[in-house]
Write a structure and sequence with these properties.
2 copies of one chain form a homodimer. In chain A, helix 1 crosses helix 6 and helix 16 crosses helix 17. In chain A, the strands form 2 sheets. Chain A has a 9-stranded mixed β-sheet, sandwiched between helices. In chain A, helix 8 links the parallel strand 3 and strand 4. Chain A folds into 3 domains: about 120 residues, no CATH class; about 190 residues, Rossmann fold (3-Layer(aba) Sandwich), CATH 3.40.50.450; about 60 residues, Arc Repressor Mutant, subunit A, CATH 1.10.10.10. By secondary structure, chain A is α/β, with parallel strands linked by helices. The radius of gyration of chain A is 31 Å and the shape is elongated. At the A-B interface, helix 5, helix 8, helix 13, strand 9 and helix 15 of A face helix 5, helix 8, helix 13, strand 9 and helix 15 of B. Chains A, B: Pfam families: DNA_processg_A. Chains A, B: InterPro entries: DprA, DrpA_SLOG. Chains A, B: Belongs to the DprA/Smf family.
Chain lengths: ~425, ~425
């Protein structure tokens, strides 16, 4: 069995983001991992590894804070997927005495159960059929080491996918090189979808790719904005590449295949489940240089993606909205907590995601009124000028709080510039004030 | 002439926020300042003071950055009001040789001009008449040292007002003790006025006062929100207490007089001018513990108030809005620049303005779904359950990625809790899913 077939098998055996399987593959390689599951024979090396990575320190199980989403080797997680709470935290004793040899009865039982849950799926795994099915629909398999493999996924550590199914004309690695993840609620408001589409288009216009989840609401609007600018866009699916959920987005997915690429780490035919959506979000965050949350309620899958972006040291941004809209409450919380930068448009997103100093956004500025260009004394005189009945220079001086000499020297220049005019009783502002206000 | 009458005279002679006059009063007291203007005789002490505070270092006039709004004694400002650019920066040589004795011809001329611009207003000053006029309309004069004088105005340094006219039943000092300035555009959107009114009411409900400028738009809405909750509210006018601009707000001002207080640092009859609005803003910022900007275009007077709040070390907050609304662009810029904290409601404003640790806002949270309370393995089983046709435990185990033993141990509990049910072909989710989703 070659590397590709072994990785296709692993996609069937373990749920996406299963860090125990990821660690095993990192330790032994994909073929050996499949063989272990098939034969169930653990050698001394493997049991020591499992005890080291899954045994708990003396004093009982520690707090299980999987929501913080730590990645990387040597984590103390069980076989759960990334972002999915550990299912076995209560079942390990880790009592000091029992870990003498790094291995005790309960740990051994736990190892056997983990391998058994993978083995149960071995019967239905048929990598050759998966490969044929992918070929039939026109998808391609990429694995680590391939030219199209996006190496930024290595940041995921043990939760890195074993392989990816790609379906579409764009090159995934190239599309993600300068890309931003635009994510948000499925139950988006018209404001949210408008902003997401503008953001997608604004990023596309400036040569940046848009990565998202292809869902209803914000995701779909962001993809469509990018497509409208003929920019590559990447849909990361939570199901098999041939399933392409939601089915009402078939037209969108067809357009993405023509101009971008669909990505799936699930085997062919896999249906989207809630854990798969959450685990999929880590790929969206990992593929792009920064993540922007457009609309998210305080409890939203988009905040899960935001959390992955933070853990992965990607820049995080959020678009504010009306404080009266629950759909923006999650964005405001991220900004308040200092986790996300407040952004109002594509230029500000690029400033964040881009190269320091070369992708700066122009600062929002108002118009410069011509009055601003006056010297300070002339401005004081203008502010004190009457609008209807004329006034003498001495009265103007008192009103403006400057001396008479200053008023006399200013009036000539102000008249020449069209600010004031001489009338029968003295001086007044010109009615057609060219300086506004 | 007593202290009160002298200060009433100073209100007539110098524009509000005139730091030169403020420094003179700090140096000699109000009576002596009036006498100096009246007699024009500067002694050696005074000329040295003026040279020290107004002479420029050798090498010509330095950059005149009045927009940064520095306060306090010994500033190198001319006679301009706070926030109004220095009108005389070009007229001082400050050449090294000429400042041998700290006083040269140009500096002397400048001193004389400054005193002359005050003296020109002396003729029209009549403090006794002002006092009578105040009494007539029912206003009262408070000066530093009075019980009702808000001592936080001392933070303004040389731009501290000489005295304040108050008109209304509430005690100013007490009303401002726990108060927040709510400011924003006159050209507010319905969203902005809604949020300002909610904020005013929310602050009032929680025992906090609302300080603002009584203008159209955000200011008026914030005052009205506070009034609706029978909370004290403070209107800081940019004109005389008897003028009460804008005139369309007479009903609002009447309500404020009954329940709060109108404040003016201008003499009776003074009309609002643009510089007076800007200078007035420093009082709004100084009176309150923090300033909240509700809606502000990138060029807005409310941002001037925000700048004063920063200079005065008051907390600054801004309410976000739609990024598609120019009326919120100034707020977003403040948040992006890290100058303002993003706030979405009264509780968050109070957390900022209140005492650390005792006025914490509850964090925005979503509902907790009952599914969240399941143990992790049961949750995996629930996620993998079929919804229509029943499935056997072994199939469920493969779908959930757990072993058979776990499925068998979970199903009983899930059935008892109402999540799943046994049907002829095996197990499935209950149709009336009590856990939502």
């Amino acid at each position: 069995m070659n590397d590709r077939l072994a990785r296709l098998t692993l996609m069937r055996l373990a749920e996406p983001g299963d860090t125990a399987m990821g660690a095993l593959v990192a330790l032994r390689g994909p073929q050996a991992a499949v063989a272990l599951v098939r034969e169930g024979a653990a050698d001394a090396d493997l049991t020591r590894w499992f005890a080291d990575t899954h045994g708990r320190p003396a004093g009982g199980p520690g707090p299980c804070d999987e929501d913080s989403g730590r990645y990387g080797r040597g984590s103390d997680r069980g076989g759960g997927g990334a972002g999915v709470p550990d299912g076995v935290s209560g079942s390990v004793s880790g009592a000091g005495g029992g870990r003498r040899a790094g291995w005790d009865g309960r740990l051994a039982a736990r190892f056997d159960r983990m391998v058994a849950s993978w083995a149960a799926r071995l019967r239905t795994a048929d990598p050759e059929r998966d490969l044929a099915e992918g070929e039939r629909i026109g998808a391609r398999l990429v694995i680590p080491g391939d030219a199209e493999w996006p190496s930024q996924l290595d940041d995921l550590g043990d939760s890195r996918p074993h392989a990816l199914w790609l379906h579409g004309d764009a090159d995934l690695r190239f599309s993600c090189l300068r890309s931003v993840a635009v994510v948000g609620s499925r139950a988006a408001t018209p404001y949210g979808t408008h902003v997401a589409a503008e953001l997608g288009a604004g990023l596309g216009e400036r040569g940046w790719g848009v990565v998202s989840g292809g869902a209803y609401g914000i995701d779909g609007a962001a993809h469509r904005g990018a497509l409208a600018c003929e920019a590559p866009t990447v849909v990361v699916l939570a199901c098999g590449a041939d399933v392409a959920y939601p089915s009402a987005h078939q037209q969108l997915f067809a357009a993405v295949r023509a101009q971008g690429v669909l990505v799936s780490e699930s085997p062919m035919g896999a249906h989207p489940t809630r854990p798969r959506f959450l685990v999929r979000n880590r790929l969206i965050a990992a593929l792009s240089r920064s993540t922007v949350v457009v609309e998210a309620a305080v409890r939203s899958g988009a905040l899960n993606t935001a959390g992955h972006a933070v853990v992965l040291n990607r820049q995080l941004a959020a678009v504010p909205g009306p404080v009266t809209s629950d759909a923006s409450a999650g964005c405001h919380r991220l900004i308040r907590q200092g986790k996300a930068v407040c952004v109002t448009g594509a230029e500000e997103v690029i400033e964040l995601a881009g190269t320091m100093g070369t992708d700066l956004a122009p600062e929002a500025r108002g118009p410069v009124l011509s009055r601003d260009r006056l010297d300070p004394e002339s401005r004081k005189v203008v502010e004190a000028m009457p609008t209807r009945i004329g006034m003498g220079p001495a009265t103007i001086a008192v009103a403006a709080g400057v001396d008479l000499e200053t008023v006399l020297s200013c009036l000539g220049g102000l008249a020449a510039a069209g600010y004031v005019e001489r009338v029968s009783q003295g001086w007044r502002l010109r009615a057609d004030r060219p300086f506004g206000g």
